Amino acid sequence: MYISILVDNALVVVDGEGLTIPLDKSKIPKWVEAIWWDGKKGMLQHRDNTKSKPITSFKPYQSILDLYQQQKEYLKEQEKIPPEKTAREIRNAVRKQTDIMFNPGYTIHDELLTEEQKDQLFNYCLDLAKWPKQPNWPEIPLPTAPEWLAPLLNMSEWPPINNELN
Questions:
Q1: CA 1 to CA 58: how far, in whole Å?
Q2: CA 86 to chain centre
Q3: DSSP code for 28
Q4: For residue 143, what is the DSSP state?
Q5: CA trace torsion 38, 73, 164, 8 (10° rounding)
Q6: Rounded to 5 degrees, what are φ and ψ at 138?
Q7: Model-wide pTM > 0.85
Q8: What is the Cα gyration radius of the chain?
Q9: For 54-104, how does the pLDDT look when each residue is reduced to its tens digit (9 = 90+)?
Q10: Is 15 helix (H, G, I), strand (E, B) or coil?
Q11: 66-104: string of b/e by CB count within 10 Å (b at 16+)?
């Protein structure tokens, strides 16, 4: 198994297949940009090749490989979930957030919604409701929230970006 870890980019490449994963850099020397391991020997490498250090054990970095494997398994499981289900879950989560805004006393920074904001909110919610009936759904973006509303919503990205390298 050949492993490359690009520390600055949090990219782990195992036998040519790469994933970006969160790295705990506290256990990696600050000068290290890349870690290479071929199963028997390896190298800690500085970005401009002015400093490198051979390593004879990958054990200190095994947790990075374990996290890579967990992320790879997670992505495989996610591929099994029909995209329609995931899209509906994301859309429904957004609708749940907007539903409370129809309360007549709803405020943003202690200001009631204006009539224009109420109209925009209503039209955005209609667009969300119609979204699954659009051509090529679910492989199309979610409707775009009005500029004032977007920062108030906690939304997952759709369609999701594939983090795996091909």
A1: 12
A2: 14
A3: S
A4: P
A5: -60
A6: -95, 10
A7: no
A8: 23
A9: 999 999 999 999 999 999 998 888 778 888 998 999 999 999 999 999 999
A10: coil
A11: ebbeebbeeeeeeeeeeeeebbeebbeebeeebeebeee
